[in-house]
Design a protein that fits this description.
heterodimer, A: 24 helices, 2 strands, B: mainly alpha, globular
């Protein structure tokens, strides 16, 4: 297949989950069939994504697998799809995570009035919207997916979430909608500015990149800020992050993984795809602002993560800290930093996704989200404990795991241009070790204790069971991971180790696009410069 | 005798030259107004059991015939026939007129379907005999008779007050004349023709009659004030320009040493009258009470069609008569638009009645519409008209759904009664949620397309700060739409909650039409946008 016009493949990637979603939605009275159908569609999507990966030529054209057709001429909007390396890895991550979260949610008990058909249909709809966000090459179309994406997630949180789901769902929706609407002003502004330059307005990304240099800096800054607010809320950067802990904590585990694993990356992806190439002068001028927020986020969110008592909120805060690293890598404007940031987006999706899943499995056993309700669980469920340790170590970027490569690239790439910010950011690594290991220690190690564990085992409050006694007595009441759960986690374990030792295949796809993005910002790489 | 002498000396009266009338151009309006007169005769001469059917048939046939006439003229219009200025230049049928007429007829058809329904509320939403005082023994007797004898009524007792159909047609005809009026006097008469039937229709509810009658009186009194403002403005402008023709006012204002006080005082009074009809804040005070009290199908008609007519008038007056002086008044209308958006969004947050909530939402939407209307560019015109079409169908379908959710006391319009609706009737909840997302302006609905059209026109005309305010307000307004979605989907149903009626064919058709248009204009809006951009105002 010719990569420059393999747009049909991208269209199929977009439409398949939509068709699946509609189909699954009709199976209200047959939960088993609904789940199976949804999983088949999700696995089919994974195959399509693998196909797209194999067709894509790294180092080829800037945008590949293109498809473009007239849509709303009155607005100048086209239905235009296409991917670069950055979009491709994000699409691959989406396609990978969706079947995994489906498998993880397989045995979830739904409260009355909620059907599996509804849940899986929303998951597929969400997947289609996320693919659309990454594949759109028309600013109008991108905006459209960016906004519509909220709706399935809103229903996932609000209908299937925890006790405070109403509050969390509305907060999530309003934050994102507000950002999106501010961005809409900039989207329209871009069109108006482009019609001033070209005589006829355009939303086409490639066209807008071409004329980026002819937009005055002051105009660029206003337009940049419009996009920035939306992306900073989505990413989320401190101080616009407060919706994420609520949404992450209340979301059902499946939706939560997609929320922190993919949905939030749309913010960073937006910086890379839209803010930097379309407003290069503004990006350079406002980089200190973003860097400050990024580093503040790394440190502030890490401190908050240390102090969390709720497991899911804990994961949400670690994510905010990680997003700070990613933003640092993007706005340090170096090849290594930016490539590291993109790789970090993938790795964070894998490792935090796994951490979220494992914690979800733990919560499913203990029926409590509080850290204090658990203790000594490793004695009961050694496999679960091992999985949590691996996910945690990957999250704190231990060498040998995937996150180490990306975090190292971000730091080494950022240092030449932004030494002060980089040095501050390294403090976040220490905090990461602290929060991950301390949580692991409190939950997994020591004697079996905690109301959630003892409640499941039938022990009275205040008692402490010796590990072997508990394991022997009622282990089936607090069982270790089932075959399904291990199968769900296995691909993530493989990827954590594989990308830890051999990230090159992904970097090969990312690097040319990162180089092109850096060119569009109009900055040369500081490391290469130093070498000359 | 002096008088006789004067009479004798008077020159012979000049032979009156009849103005040329372009019948094909104004056929849609003539059909509607003619059928309205016919409908009065039906009311007088057809006996009770068959009267409802005759009225419904006549109304629907009229709207379809008018639509066909409009289509025929539109065909010749796109084929090269230009703007028709007719009836001694009092009526102009140009591109915007045709679009607004089409919108009014389509919305009128959907509203007529809602009005005609007799299954959701047994016997229809309208009282059997409006002349009987509410709550009296006679009133109860009639209600009992209707319940026991069936919806169609008998020779002595009608199932419902079928006068609503001629009133609907007169009102619609007035709206069509209003958006086509080329001088202020014609506009005033059209305003009265569209308003007076509406006042009556508001008072015809079968349930909660006192509330309905209160709404009618309130609407009438405040509407009379607004008409007076309008008329006073017309008088001042006549004093200024020596003419009531829009084009001659425009000429007079283009560089003359006449009194600016007259011009701007006249403009202000005139526009206040128009803004009142469009329920633009701060002239919106009647809206929530009237929307709540009126029979819901009538509310749907008002919310959709009156807004189209009012904004059609605002667009024409501002563009044709006052385009040259826009820099003098635009700042004021900025303020009005902001006030309307903020009032609608903020007060909407505090509402507990769903009809009042949608009323405040309509005030906020009026602000958004005004943002497009004061752009005074071709894009602003077409964007605003598209918004009217989109908003009309969405809000009409929303009111259609509201009629379905009922308990023993009639419509269950208190928000708390909507809790857990998704569990009881997933389809109704899904439809309503979709409409709410459209009102909130989420993409893939017509609400987003309309907002985009209006806001892009405004930004292109240099009103970026206003648009940013409008977008922030949109986010605030989204909160109260979301609140209903939260109630329907995320809350547990109340034990004695309302039931959802299975709609009859008429209401089903109206809601389906509204939902389909809302979706279509969100996904593939090109045809409507092109139609809206067919032409600009003839001056």
């Amino acid at each position: 297949m010719n990569p420059s016009n393999g747009g049909a493949l991208l269209l199929a990637l977009l439409l398949a989950p939509l068709v699946g979603s509609a189909l699954v939605a009709t199976m209200r009275s047959a939960p088993g069939a609904a789940k199976t159908t949804a999983l088949v569609f999700a696995l089919g999507e994974l195959v399509l994504a693998a196909l797209a990966w194999s067709v894509y030529q790294p180092g080829g054209e800037r945008l590949q697998l293109r498809l473009s057709t007239e849509w709303i001429p009155a607005f100048g909007a086209r239905f235009a799809l296409g991917v670069d390396g950055i979009a491709l890895v994000m699409i691959a991550l989406t396609a990978l995570l969706v079947p995994i979260v489906m498998g993880a949610s397989w045995a979830e008990k739904l409260s009355e009035g909620r059907t599996a058909a509804g849940f899986y249909s929303l998951l597929l709809a969400l997947q289609a919207m996320m693919i659309g966000v990454f594949a759109a090459t028309d600013v109008f179309l991108f905006y459209l997916f960016f906004e519509v994406m909220l709706v399935p997630m809103y229903f996932l949180i609000g209908r299937f979430g925890g006790p405070r789901r109403q509050y969390a769902a509305v907060k999530f929706f309003l934050y994102s909608l507000l950002g999106g609407l501010v961005m809409l002003a900039s989207v329209i502004g871009v069109f108006v500015v482009s019609s001033g330059v070209l005589g006829r307005g355009s939303f086409e990304w490639a066209t807008l990149v071409r004329i980026a240099d002819s937009i005055p800096q002051q105009t660029q800054i206003w337009l940049f800020l419009g996009f920035f607010v939306a992306f900073a809320i989505k990413a989320p950067l401190v101080p616009l992050h407060t919706w994420l802990p609520d949404a992450g904590a209340e979301a059902p585990v499946g939706a939560g993984v997609l929320l922190v694993g993919v949905l939030d990356k749309v913010g960073i992806y937006g910086f890379l795809r839209y803010c930097l190439p379309l407003f290069p002068d503004a990006s350079r001028a406002l980089a200190p602002l973003v860097l400050t927020l990024a580093v503040a986020g790394i440190l502030y969110a890490a401190l908050l993560a240390v102090g969390q008592t709720d497991l899911k909120r804990f994961v949400a805060y670690t994510s905010v800290a990680h997003f700070g690293f990613i933003a640092l890598g993007v706005f340090a404007f170096s090849t290594q930093g930016m490539a590291g940031a993109v790789l970090y987006m993938v790795n964070h999706g894998i490792s935090t996704g796994m951490l979220f899943l494992v914690i979800g499995m733990l919560i499913a056993r203990g029926n409590s989200r509080l850290i204090a309700d658990y203790g000594g669980v490793a004695a009961l469920t050694p496999v679960l404990a091992g999985m949590m340790l691996l996910a945690g170590l990957s999250s704190l970027a231990l060498p040998g795991t995937n996150s180490f490569v990306s975090e190292f690239l971000v730091l080494i790439g950022s240092f030449p241009r932004e030494p002060a910010y980089t040095v501050l950011a390294t403090a976040g690594i220490i905090l990461a070790a602290l929060y991950v290991l301390w949580v692991y220690q409190r939950i997994m190690q020591g004697p079996v204790r905690g109301t959630a564990v003892l409640g499941a085992l039938g022990g009275g409050p205040g008692t402490m069971l010796a590990p072997e006694v508990a394991a022997n007595r009622r282990a089936h009441l607090f069982p270790d991971l089932s075959g399904r759960e291990i199968a769900v986690l296995a691909p993530l374990v493989v990827l954590i180790l594989l990308l830890g030792f051999y990230p090159q295949p992904v970097l090969d796809v990312i690097n040319p696009s990162v180089g092109a993005t850096l060119n569009e910002v109009g900055l040369s790489d500081p490391v290469l410069q130093g070498g000359n | 005798m002096l008088g006789a002498a004067v009479l004798a000396q008077a020159p012979p009266a000049p032979s009156v030259q009849l103005p040329a009338i372009d019948y094909p151009a104004i056929a849609p309006m003539l059909i509607v107004l003619g059928a309205a007169c016919l409908s009065v005769l039906v009311e007088a001469f057809v006996a009770h059991p068959g009267r409802w059917a005759a009225q419904v048939g006549l109304t629907l046939a009229t709207l379809l015939a008018a639509g066909a006439a409009l289509g025929a003229h539109l065909y010749s219009f796109t084929g090269g026939v230009r703007d028709a200025v007719t009836l001694a230049a009092t009526v102009v049928v140009d591109g915007p007129t045709l679009f607004l007429w089409g919108t009014l007829l389509a919305l009128g058809l959907a509203a007529a379907l809602l009005i005609a329904d007799r299954t959701v509320e047994p016997g229809g939403s309208f009282t059997a005999d409006a002349a009987v005082r509410a709550g009296t023994a006679a009133d109860r007797e009639i209600n009992r008779a209707v319940r026991s004898q069936g919806y169609a009524g008998t020779a002595t007792v009608s199932g419902m007050q079928t006068e609503v159909f001629p009133l609907l047609l007169f009102s619609l005809g007035g709206m069509m004349a209003f958006v086509a009026a080329n001088d202020l006097l014609t506009m005033f008469i059209a305003l009265e023709v569209l308003s007076l039937p509406l006042y009556l229709m508001c008072g015809l509810a079968r349930r909660r009659r006192l509330l309905s009658q209160e709404a009618a009186v309130k609407y009438f009194l405040l509407g009379a004030f607004a008409s007076a403002f309008f008329l006073y403005g017309v008088a001042l402008l006549y004093g200024y320009a020596g003419s009531v023709k829009l084009s001659e006012i425009a000429e007079a204002s283009g560089g003359s040493d006449r009194s600016d006080t007259l011009l701007f005082a006249g403009l202000a009074l005139l526009v206040i009258g128009l803004l009142f009809k469009g329920s633009v804040g701060p002239f919106h005070a009647w809206t929530p009470d009237v929307y709540q009290g009126a029979p819901t199908p009538v509310t749907a008609f008002m919310a959709a069609c009156t807004k189209v007519a009012a904004f059609g008038g605002i667009l024409r007056v501002l563009t044709v008569a006052f385009g040259a002086t826009q820099w003098e008044w635009r700042g004021v209308l900025w303020g009005v638009a902001i006030a309307s958006m903020v009032i609608g969004a903020v007060l909407g947050l505090t509402q507990t009645d769903i009809k009042r909530m949608i009323a405040y939402s309509s005030v906020a939407h009026a602000g958004f519409l005004l943002v497009g209307a004061i752009a005074l560019t071709a894009a602003g015109l077409s964007g605003t008209m598209f918004y009217l079409l989109a908003y009309g169908f969405t809000t009409l379908a929303a009111f259609g759904v509201i009629t379905l959710v009922r308990d023993a006391g009639g419509e269950a319009s208190h928000l708390s009664q909507w809790a857990g609706l998704a569990k009881r009737s997933p389809l109704t909840a899904a439809v309503f949620a979709f409409l709410l997302f459209a009102l909130a302006g989420i993409p893939l609905t017509s609400g987003f397309t309309g907002k985009f059209a209006v806001f892009s026109a405004a930004i292109a005309d240099g009103m970026a700060p206003l648009v940013v305010i409008a977008l922030v307000v949109s986010a605030v307004a989204a909160f109260f739409y979301l609140r209903v979605v939260v109630l329907m989907y995320f809350s547990e149903p109340a034990p004695d909650g309302p039931t959802v009626s299975v709609p009859g064919p008429f209401t089903t058709a109206a809601i389906t039409l509204g939902v389909m248009v809302t979706l279509l204009l969100g996904v593939l809006p090109t045809f409507a946008l092109d139609w809206a951009a067919l032409g600009v105002f003839a001056s």
